[in-house]
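ok here's the first one, seq then struct tokens
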Amino acid sequence: MTDILLMVFAAIAILGAAATAIQKNPYDKLISLGMLFAGVIPFVVAGGYLDVAISLALIVPITTIILLQAVWRCRL
């Protein structure tokens, strides 16, 4: 069961990376980066690095908000 879940998360991470490379709209790129991070965090947890996973879970949303504000200002 764990192997199946890891394959699913690997597929999510690969799809997120591919979508980030393809997208032209900055907002869509941020959504794709969110998919990429959502696919990577379970691998960090599976490796036993729970402190790093907690840090990622706190840092990624904050940086996403900062990047959204930066993209919004550049479009004006």
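and now the second one, same deal
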Amino acid sequence: MRSSPASIDSSLELPPVTAADLAAGAIVALATAFLALAVVRSGGSTAAATLLLLAGGSIVATQARSWVRSARRPGRRLVACADGSLWLHTAGLAPCRATVDVGTRLIGPSVFLDLLADSNPAGKRYRAWLTPLDLPTHAIRRWSVVLPRSGRRTGS
């Protein structure tokens, strides 16, 4: 006898660094270079251009350090159970129940996750923009059906 898809647990491996994170870093680097070049070409001082490059470079360096720390963290997996509960599993730690918070959105072929870990009284959040570059398209499509059925936080 086959079980219906609704009775099967769904699991999703969450990438430590997403393509959206990398794209944001690239945009900051390119914008910094463009602004510095525009300052120099418009007759501005090279000191101003250098300050722009240092500021933008420090932002990109800070973000890159964050990516390295994220890549070293234990892997995370999101599991939606047949009963509608949502669990965030982190390697080496006990699973914690999570709720889909109000920021979760489907954006074209991607999904922005805004999850709230219930086990943490401070309200630890997990936010990630998952695109087809991070996960197969069929997995994102499946989770676009699973997430609305999962527990959603009410009120604010």
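notes on #2: Strands lie at 10-14, 76-80, 86-90, 96-100, 105-107, 110-117, 125-130. The radius of gyration is 20 Å.
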